[in-house]
Each structure stands twice: as structure tokens, then as C-alpha cells.
């Protein structure tokens, strides 16, 4: 069973509308509709993490295995989850580093301005 269908089944089990779940996940109702109908298969790690947290399931809930233990076509594999997690975390770390540098630079500018103002007062 594909990811979108599993999300729909979890939503329906909670007797929720698409609008309610979309709001909770921070996406549009039309985006959720395309995910649930498997028209949109570009579900990122952050969104999957929100889905798992809200429904209290792990990523493995969305993995279907054949008898040989391999994911079926159209399903997430463990390596895909790992890669998505790694990419997402690395992107978030990169963003935080850039944001932190920007804030440090702004702090230095403000400290310089304070020092100038103190000099000007004396």
C-alpha cells in the first residue's frame, strides 16, 4: 500500500477531514489531497516526521515488505528514509550555522555601535 493511502487511512481512522489534518501538518488541503491520492509523491522528511508524530507511528509504518524483506515498488526503503533524514538534518544544520553567523555578525555591529556611542558621550 502506498504512503498517501496509508496517510488517508490514518486520517480516516481518527475521523478527521483533510482540512483538519492539512492545518495540523502546515500544508494546504489541496497538497494533502494530492498526497493521499498518490498524485504527489514528493513527501519530504519534515512532513513525514509530522505525520508520524501526530499519528503516533514510526517511519516503518509506511514501509511494505515482500516476503524477501525488500520494499515493494513505490514504497520507502530504509535506505531512502536514512538518506532523506540525513539530507534533511544536514540542511537544517547548514541553515542554523548560516543563521548563527548572521546573528553573530549583527551582534558585533551592535557592540561596535554601542562602543562608538560611549566614546561620543565622553
TrEMBL record:
It comes from Flavobacterium cheonhonense. This is HTH cro/C1-type domain-containing protein. Keywords: DNA-binding. SUPFAM superfamilies: lambda repressor-like DNA-binding domains (SSF47413). Residues 7-62 form the HTH cro/C1-type domain. InterPro entries: Cro/C1-type_HTH (IPR001387), Lambda_DNA-bd_dom_sf (IPR010982). It comes from the Bacteria. Gene3D superfamilies: lambda repressor-like DNA-binding domains.
Amino acid at each position: 500500500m502506498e504512503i498517501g493511502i496509508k496517510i488517508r487511512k490514518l486520517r480516516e481512522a481518527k475521523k478527521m477531514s483533510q482540512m483538519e489534518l492539512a492545518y495540523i501538518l502546515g500544508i494546504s488541503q489541496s497538497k494533502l489531497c494530492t498526497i493521499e491520492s498518490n498524485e504527489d509523491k514528493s513527501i519530504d522528511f519534515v512532513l513525514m516526521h509530522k505525520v508520524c508524530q501526530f499519528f503516533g507511528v514510526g517511519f516503518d509504518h509506511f514501509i511494505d515488505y515482500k516476503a524477501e524483506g525488500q520494499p515493494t515498488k513505490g514504497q520507502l526503503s530504509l535506505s531512502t528514509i536514512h538518506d532523506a533524514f540525513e539530507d534533511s538534518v544536514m540542511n537544517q544544520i547548514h541553515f542554523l550555522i548560516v543563521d548563527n553567523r548572521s546573528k553573530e555578525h549583527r551582534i558585533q555591529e551592535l557592540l561596535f555601535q554601542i562602543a562608538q556611542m560611549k566614546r561620543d558621550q565622553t
